[in-house]
Each structure stands twice: as structure tokens, then as C-alpha cells.
Amino acid sequence: MWKCIHTWKKASVNTLWCLFGCALGDFGTIIYFQNITHSNSTLEIMVLATINGLITSIIFETLVLLRQMGFKNAFKTAIGMSFVSMIFMEIAMNATDLMINGAPAINLKTVPIILLVGYITPLPYNYWRLKKFGISCH
């Protein structure tokens, strides 16, 4: 089951779309808190970054899917097909950020590593879901 090149390619593209959407909200939130004076804890910032990453990913994926279907179906597909993948991705990205930087921080040195971990973590799940159910987000 894990040897289908076509499915790996499709899962890889789907995961990149998801990564882009999640990173927009996640990184945007962290950059915002890096540049203001605040009293929020690391956990509060990371939870907010995760929530914002999920929201922006759903919005972005819905917009991408609008090319193929109506809004209601696009929105349901964006939530239903990739929400588990987005949660895995967000947790992996934020955990990596904390391990490398020790705090919510975005810098050019660590962003590629955070994105790589965020990409690789949900990829097998996306492949499995695509192979088992023939269901894809994009």
C-alpha cells in the first residue's frame, strides 16, 4: 500500500497546500507577538497560533477548492478532509519551534526546519487517507 508513487505525489501536493495555509496563520500570530509588548505565556501564544493556523488553512483550502465546487462543498471538504492533518501539522510545527527556539519565535534560521517538520508529519496520514478512501482535499 505504501509504494504508490502517484498517491505519494498527490498526497505531497495536498500537504503543501495545507502547510501554506497553516503557516500563514501560525507564523503570523507568532510574528505579531514577537513584535509587541505582551504578558501572554508561551502556551497561550502557541494555542492561539495553532487556532489561527487552523483557521487560515481552512479559509485558504476553501478558496482553492472553490475552483472545483461550490462554497458549501468546498468548506465542508476543507474541514472534513484535512482537519486531522492540520492538527498534526500545527502541533509538530509549534513543538519544533519550542524545541529549537525555546519560545515562540520566527527567524530565517529556523523557519525551514519548522516547515519541513510540519510537512513531513502529516504526509503519511494524507497518503493513507488518499489511498484508503480515494479522498483528497485538492
List the helices and strands and how they pair.
Elements: H1 5-34, H2 42-65, H3 71-101, H4 111-120, H5 123-133
Helix pairs in contact: 1-2, 1-3, 1-5, 2-3, 3-4
Molecular structure report:
This protein has helices at residues 5-34, 42-65, 71-101, 111-120, 123-133. It is mainly α. The protein has one domain. The mean pLDDT is 91.
Radius of gyration from the alpha-carbon trace, in angstroms: 15 Å
The general outline is: globular
Averaging pLDDT over every residue, what do you get? 91
Q: What string gives the helices and strands in order?
A: HHHHH
Helical amount:
over 70%
Total helical elements? 5
How would you sum up the major sheet? none
Task: List the domain count as a whole number.
Answer: 1
Distance between the termini: 21 Å
